[in-house]
Amino acid sequence: MRSVFRLLLVCIFVMISACASNEQEEVLPEETYYENARSAMASGNFNEAEQNLDYLETYYPFGRYAEQAQLDLIYARYQNLDLEGSRSAADRFLRLNPQSENADYALYMRGLASYNLDISLAARYFPIDISERDPGEQRRAFRDFSELLNRYPDSEYAPDARQRMIAIRNRLAALELHAARYYIKREAYVAANNRARYVVENFPSTPSTEEALIILAETYQFLDLKKAAEDAIQLLAVNYPDSEAFDDNMEFQSNKLKREDRSLGSVVTFGLMGDE
Q1: Distance between CA atoms of 201 and 215, rounded to whole angstroms?
Q2: Which of 147, 174, 188, 239 could form a cystine bridge with 131, CB 3.0-4.6 A?
Q3: Residue 210: which of 233, 186, 182 has the closest Cα?
Q4: 184 lies in a domain?
């Protein structure tokens, strides 16, 4: 029994020594990891770049390349389509380097990662309407871009951030409009009115505003709120005089609240056949 126990101890010791020896062999000089990462990024091999940057952070967290490695890791993960990982890396950089001269870049990349999170790989190849997706990441991106513009208005990334904020506003407005159309189909006109009003009040001058005003006017008419309907129609006429909601005499002629045919025949034929 003692012999077996001693043999077991020897085996454990050998295994521990071998692991320690392997770990020592794997640890490369700080500069080597950094140069390997930069070379990999230059050749477009972002998987290898990310691996070397991870090693650099693990073995040399306070080395001379630490800050640049953290920035490169944000970019490498983004290029690898690891958008959540890129955002996490940007978060970490901003926590560790709040006064860095590259903080604007980290903020921009954090916003950019969220901006693209709502556009999955499937949406790149299939006709998926992003206006129908959960806008949570879009709102996070908007906050990041807004913080970038407030803190670093002269940043080289500010112009692009500003344009993306406009795009986000358009997406959020389109999402509200999509919800309004859904409620109209369900004949929930009060809910549709609320969604359309939210667009007009919070996202004016977006491509969705015209249709929102039309829905607003028509739902007010349905609810017999004549003054509110007249105000919405007047606002539509002032801002969109060429709207298709007006006839040649500038009379409001919209029919977005047209009731769907819910007859048994329509349900059975999926609405593809007429009444004849």
Answers
A1: 14
A2: 174
A3: 233
A4: no
**Amino acid at residue number 129:** D
Q: With respect to residue 4, please indicate whether it lies within any of the assigned structural domains.
A: no
SS3 call for 246: strand
End-to-end CA distance of the chain: 95
- Is residue 60 one of the residues assigned to a domain? yes
**Residue 143 is assigned to a structural domain of this protein:** no
pTM: 0.75
CB 104 within 8 A of CB 85: no
- What is the total count of domains within the chain? 1
Burial state string for 213-252 with b = 16 or more CB within 10 A and e = fewer than 16: bbbbbbbbbbeeeeebbeebbeebeeebeebebbeeeeeb
Task: For the chain, state the CA radius of gyration.
Answer: 29
Segment 162-191, tens digit of pLDDT: 999 999 999 999 999 999 999 999 999 999
Residue 205: left (phi > 0), alpha (psi -120 to 50), or beta?
left
Nearest partner of 162 among 150, 173, 172, 174, judged by Cα = 150
Enumerate the β-bridge partners of residue 246.
252
Q: pLDDT digit string (tens) for 50-83?
A: 999 999 989 998 899 999 999 999 999 999 999 9
